Amino acid sequence: MRRPSPLDFVVTSGIVIMVLAATTARSLLTPLFSSGDEMAHFDYAVQVWHGDLPVFEDGLQVELPWGVRPPVQWTSQHPPLFYVLLAPVVGPLYDSGSPYLAGMSGRMVNTVIAAVLCAAVMWAVRPLCGGRRWLPWIAGLTAASSPWVMGVGSAIYNDNMAALEITVVLGAALRLITLPREGTGVFATRSGMWWVLGIAAVAAASTRFALVPIVAVVFGTLVLRGLLAPGPLPRRSWLLRPVLIGIAMIAATGWFYLRNVRLTGTVAGGHPDWAKANTGRTSPPAPLEVAADPVYWSKLLGIFSPGNTPDGLTLWALLAAPALLGAVLATVLGAASRRGRSAPHGSRTPGAAERPVALAGVAMLAAVSGLLITMQFVYVSAAAGNLFPRYSLPILSVTCLLIAWGLGGLRRAAPLLVLAWSATAWWQIVVFLLGRPRTAARGQAELRPDLALPLVGFAVAAAVVTVAAVLIGVVMTSRPAPGGPGRRARRVAAPA
């Protein structure tokens, strides 16, 4: 296992600081409870603090002087883990008559989760970076430059927590699939990684029902990996351990999903009939119609645009083009690495950190991504739902991994590409934040631009330092060509 370098610390710290600063600034520039979803999530946490669970038809229990109040409690179908985390923070403040402090404190909890999510993306993608130590940094930087990671973090939503749990699940599974030997520490040993996977999987099932099928795909991949190439772990262990984690998920959350069945007739606990009758989407499109409409794709995947329906520069320059290039580079360079690995005697033999991209891990990420997209398209059709980029946050690590390969797969081109991408991404973030209203409208909670604007500058400074550290890491890191020794090694070996 590679020891962290000073640059690892600088990049990670910079990413965490810029997310905390920018997300807090956005929170201070966004009226509290300006969406019905945020008020419903807040109400759920307050009800948990009071020892209750919400019921869809009963509506909200909180009484607030401003904000958008939904007609029903439409977050009641979610399992309660996120709200158990929020309850001791927001509950006492609400009960003491300080709803503004309660709401802003709940937002701060989500801001911290957003920062941890971006750090988790760096950790999760490392096994599929082909020994290019700078690619996880770029992946973390792109995650931290997503307006939707910041947007969810600046409000009371459970999307970032769900994304964090699935990111840890995927990162642990990738290590179990790809790492050829034991390391040291809980995050390197196989037994420790199974514990990390189990805890994250139970947490995912305790946060959102839609995460359970994704975890099931991960378990299926692990079982196949164990049956086909068990390595030092017996085949029965590869089968038994996912089963035990599944039993733990049922034990932790089964009672809640049985409650959903009792109250609504379905495990998911949704109310599609109410949505069709009250949202104007009485004739939703068929799943194939959704899949054929590019607008739905952009609304789901456009995590680098502040708007709900991304287009133009943010969609193509920040997402589509680098992700497509990344898929091509990962495929081509992975094939070159495999050829170098099987070269005749005398050629370089890649170490564990330089092995080719594991096809099983790639297949798992592809299956997880395809499943999530399919579920969202079916949701639009069957439940009269709508799509937002935050619904794709569970595959944030996949998106950022592809973009990292696109920006950093070719080391010589990486500095220019990373610099151009980061400048574009943060230019639109700053423009968006500076364009927010400075005064609250009538009936809205107060805004604090006096605190937010200095934080915007602080976030930009942290982003500049982070990008500079990434560029230094790219330039200073020697990367031998696949299939043979690097230039430096050839110079040393050459006769005088």
From TrEMBL:
The chain crosses the membrane at residues 7-29, 108-125, 137-156, 162-178, 185-204, 210-227, 239-258, 315-336, 357-379, 391-410, 417-435, 455-478. Keywords: Membrane, Transmembrane, Transmembrane helix. The keyword Metal-binding does not apply. The keyword Membrane applies. It comes from the Bacteria. This is Glycosyltransferase RgtA/B/C/D-like domain-containing protein. It comes from Brachybacterium epidermidis.
